[in-house]
Design brief:
- By secondary structure, the chain is an alpha+beta fold.
- It has a single domain, classed as 2-Layer Sandwich (Alpha-Beta Plaits).
- The chain has helices at 6-9, 17-22, 38-48; strands at 10-13, 27-32, 54-62, 66-69, 72-75, 79-86.
- A four-stranded antiparallel beta sheet has the order 1-2-6-3. Strands 4-5 form a two-stranded antiparallel ribbon.
- A hairpin with a 2-residue loop joins strand 4 and strand 5.
- The model has no long low-confidence stretch (mean pLDDT 91).
Length: 99
């Protein structure tokens, strides 16, 4: 496994209608490094966003999609999504507040 630091774990937030609706329950969705595990994701969220306490982390491995360019067939890169549930006494994540 590669040497993944906490600032390399979270790549970007996922902002869709479904994820915006789940933010009322303090559930936030992120694209994460494919080799990150649940404890690494928990530590990364708590270090990157001070005042947050992670209650639970759910992860999903997403396979790459098939893409065609002429006669050549290839695949896009694999991705991994994490849904992070914060504790009820935890502070909100600031990057989602203005949306």
């Amino acid at each position: 496994m590669a040497n993944v630091q906490y600032y390399d774990v979270i790549l970007k937030p996922v902002i869709t209608e479904k994820t915006m609706g789940s933010m009322t329950d303090k559930k936030y969705t992120f694209l994460v490094h494919t080799e990150a595990n649940k404890t690494m994701i928990k530590e990364a969220v708590e270090k990157m966003f001070p005042g947050t306490k992670v209650k639970k982390v759910n992860t999903m491995n997403l396979e790459g999609k098939k893409r065609r360019r002429g006669t050549t067939v290839g695949k896009t890169a694999k991705t991994k999504k994490a849904i992070v549930q914060l504790a009820s006494d935890s502070k909100e994540i600031e990057i989602f507040e203005g949306l």
